[in-house]
Amino acid sequence: MTSSIPSAQTDCFVHDRLPPPGQWPMLVYSLLPGLDIPDQANLVDVLFSKAINMGHADRPMLRSDKITLSYADALARVNRIAQVLTEDFKLAPGNRVLLRGGNSIGMALAWLGVVQAGLVAVATMPLLRAKELGEIIEKARPALALCDATLLEELEIARAQGASVQTIIPFNLMNEPGSMAVLSSQKDGNFSPCPVAADDIAMMAFTSGTTGKPKATVHTHRDVLAACEAWPRHVLKAGPDDIVMGSPPLAFTFGLGGMLVFPMWVGASVYYPSIAYTPEAMVKLVRQVGATICYTAPTFYRQMASFAKQLGMPDLRLCVSAGESLPDATRQLWKDATGLEIIDGIGATEMFHIFISSAPGEVRAIGKVVPGYTAKVVDDHGAELPRGSIGRLAVIGPTGCRYLDDARQLNYVRDGWNYPGDAFVQDADGYFFYQARDDDMIITSGYNVAGPEVEDALLRHPAVTECGVVGVANEDRGMIVKAFVVLKPECIGNAAMVKALQDHVKATLAPFKYPRQIEFLGKLPRTETGKLQRFKLRQS
Q1: Which of 127, 219, 446, 498 has a CA positioned 20 to 30 A from the CA of residue 94?
Q2: Contact 245, 289 (CB under 8 A)
Q3: What is the pLDDT of residue 361?
Q4: Cα–Cα nearest to 204, from 231, 179, 224
Q5: Terminal alpha carbon distance of the chain
Q6: Are the CB atoms for 171 and 147 separated by under 8 Å?
Q7: How far apart are CA 20 and CA 452, in angstroms?
Q8: CATH fold for the domain made of 217-438
Q9: Whose CA is closest to 116, among 66, 180, 51, 189?
Q10: DSSP-assigned beta bridge partners for residue 443
């Protein structure tokens, strides 16, 4: 679908650096009635207008241990931020604004204010260092940066090293001249949302770097609104009484959807903690806040399980996992501790959010394709394989991959289909079973071995806390299976433990799948979003 109205974004930097139209994915809007989005639509305006028209103006939207903002309160603050950006700093629609902060009310308001003003939000992970920030700044060319005051140091270092961002505004200093809090307090909140076309750019999101150098993905206002009509409506089915908590950063599209946009779409509220999450702290806060929906990664669910079993979380009703493969051992551990099934799903920064998922009460494998999307398992030439065959996942729907000025677009989109880079099997009933990343399939002596399957087997051993499995080159077998294992503190990583783990896998899976090498580590390399960085294990 192409908007019939002209772009409102006078700064065409991002538009001009999109892939050629022939390299775009097919964007399909005909599979669901809700995907008929008007050609002029500012997603922040749509979200606030929807909530207020449903009677939620005075209901909580953003919560913390210090303050709770209603939808009306939040809208007033968002409008004041938009006024500062457009009136004081003269930013024009299409200018990029770098956002740097953890999950907080300040970060959420800043993101919404940027997009309300017709600007392009470029959110960054809190733990990025100056070098990484410099690379993002070079790619995005932001006109201005909004930064949590506690995270200014690395951004200032990046600027000193040549990163081209002239203006940095801290957004959570209440009495500091020049901070967004002070500047916005001087505004009246009388701001009309920028009348952007639905196909104008709302955001750039950088991939999490599990396979190397991150890529900048681009999403429009239409993309984000379409995503609201797919997985949240048909799988999650949250409501205005829900209170959402979780660990995925707002700079990660999984977190942006689950921890801000999707709750707004139904008039629910989100709780942002003032403390860093630990497994025990999250369980205690879920109890204290009365959270009903939790988003986090499989590793965190596994670590939370013992505390959840001990303390209980009586209000919690939906648990969502995404970002990496959910081992069945973790699913069962969590269910035993809480009585709740984890809603698994696979999504991608390139697709904005989840496109294959299991609905509550229908948990089987990862699940089926989310309404609004179409998925298939194909061979290397794009031909669909018979059910039960391992192949590459291909997806189309109302969202799709458009990288900013990156030759890797040709790897992700082929003949209009998105290729997220995952190996899957689809059964006769339409359920998709995750095998591995395309480049994580291990071929040893002619056998295909999926690393996540071996990881799941290892996690069922009582000594194992975490593990990662990769293939390493071997002269006799082509590749062999190697496991990197983090043991529980009381266990010793010696030759006897290696044999015990190998025997355990042999007794669980076909013998050719057992790890011929096991290396014990204190921790595994992960991204900020909790994804295992297997490419670092392969390099070790």
Answers
A1: 127
A2: yes
A3: 74
A4: 224
A5: 46
A6: yes
A7: 36
A8: Rossmann fold (3.40.50)
A9: 189
A10: 448
Q: Is the alpha carbon torsion for 229, 232, 236, 237 positive or negative?
A: negative
**42-195: what fold?**
Rossmann fold (3.40.50)
10 Å CB burial of residue 385 (0-12, 13-18, 19+) is middle
Residue ranges of the chain assigned to CATH 3.40.50.980: 42-195
Return d(Cα 302, Cα 312) in angstroms, integer: 15
Does the structural domain 445-539 have CATH classification 3.30.300.30? yes
Read off φ and ψ for residue 297, nearest 5 degrees: -90, 160
Pairing of strands 432-437, 422-426: antiparallel
59 CB-contact burial (10 Å; exposed 0-12 / middle 13-18 / buried 19+)? middle
384-410 pLDDT, tens digit each: 999 999 899 999 999 999 999 999 999
> Closest Cα to residue 93, out of 254, 201, 206?
201
pTM: 0.84
Q: Which residues contact 283 (CB under 8 A, 6 or more apart)?
A: 304, 307, 308, 311, 313
* DSSP character at residue 383: P
Residue 446's pLDDT is 63
Kindly report the backbone phi and psi dihedral angles of residue 164, in degrees, each rounded to the nearest multiple of 5, phi listed first. -90, 70
Other CB atoms within a 10 A radius of the CB of residue 173 amount to: 18
Spatial distance between the Cα atoms of 211 and 205, rounded to a whole number of angstroms: 16
pLDDT for 366 equals: 86
Asked if 69 and 62 count as a contact pair (C-beta separation under 8 A), the reply is yes
Measured CA to CA, the distance from residue 269 to residue 374 in angstroms comes to 31
Look at residue 210 in the predicted model and tell me its pLDDT: 47
C-alpha 207/C-alpha 237 separation (Å) is 27
Q: What tokens appear for 250 in the block?
A: 């707002």
Give dist(CA 81, CA 185) in Å, integer.
9
Residues of the chain with pLDDT under 50: 210-211
The CATH 3.40.50.12780 portion of the chain extends over 217-438
126: region left, alpha or beta (phi > 0 left; psi from -120 to 50 alpha): alpha
Question: Cβ distance 292 to 264 under 8 Å?
Answer: no
Q: How far is CA 227 from CA 233, 385, 400, in A?
A: 9, 28, 11
- Residue 407 CB neighbours (<10 A): 9
User: If residue 485 lies in a helix (H) or strand (E), which one and from where to where?
Assistant: strand 478-487
Outline which parts of the chain fall under CATH 3.30.300.30: 445-539
Residue pair 15/94 in contact by the 8 Å Cβ criterion? yes
Note whether 345 and 357 are within 8 A (CB): yes
Query: Rounded to the nearest 5°, which phi and psi values hold at 47?
Result: -65, -45
